[in-house]
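PROTOCOL LOG
Step 1. Enter all chains and additional molecules of the complex.
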Amino acid sequence: MNNDIMILAEIISAILCFILVRFMMKPYQYTGESRYIGLPVGFSFLGASYLLMGFALYFETSLFVEDIKWLQLFTQAYAFAFLAATYYFSKQTLKRNTRLWWQIIFSALAVGAIASYLIVFEPPPFDLPSYKTVDEYFRGLNIILIAYITVHTLKSHASQPDPKTIWIPLGYVLLAFGQYSSLIWSLDSSFSAFVGAHVIRLAALLIFLFVAYQAFAASQNETTSNKGS
Amino acid sequence: MRTIPRRDRMKIYGDVLSVIRTEARTGKIILTRIQLKTNVPFDRLKAYLSELEELGLIQNGSSLKLTEKGQQYVVEYEKVIDFMKRMGLIYR
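Step 2. Run joint prediction.
Step 3. Record the structure below.
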């Protein structure tokens, strides 16, 4: 029963991420700036990581469950890495150097992701650390990456305070807490930490969706009603 | 000295279209006012306006005005800018 709820939470998280990808694509579509492509890529990876975790929970007894869990670990870390890189490059002014560095970082992350996936299916001849150890390190890394994004969004909010811009830092803080709860769960197997991680994460994703809705759908309704009056 | 960040063409197009829309509400559109509000040199503003006309986003007849396509573009552009601001992304 609990497992079913966890699978459902993973599937809902994945669906929310894939809905968000549609909105996250727009800055790239409208500005044509390649530095914003990290946003939809990041949320696609995040959605894929939740989907993989759902698979891992569903096929608990399968031979491939360990491989799926490793894939999930890498996918989630790359999701936050893409998002952090996007935020880092968004504050840079438009120079040829910035574009070049973004292309180098983006390519390095893409190559790193492919190399990580190859390691999962074709393990190297030397022994890798256990999944649990790597999972803990990756959770720590994810928290650092999300903390960077949170600071960036908070600075952006502080530079031009507006009630509309406080939601996203809150969303990222909740994502970081979700990762922290997962870390606690992997350390002490506390059930409440595991449930908390899922609930907090869902709340974070709903905040992102609310922000996207406010920016696109809500303003669409306003425009329509203005035209009507 | 504080330097003004360089804008890409898409941002300039968006800014020019937004200003034209705002100015159209107030009455007659004066190019000098668009130039001042978008911070674009006059010769380049003329070039951008002819590019926007070629793209079918504005009509430059007796007076300057946005086409239906231009209206739709500027509405979407402003939504995207608002979304980016909400997301904490800096677009300059």
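Step 4. Note key features.
Residues 9-84 of chain B form a domain with the Arc Repressor Mutant, subunit A fold (CATH 1.10.10.10).
The interface with chain A takes residues 5-8, 10-11, 14, 75-77, 79-80, 82-92 of chain B (CB under 8 Å).
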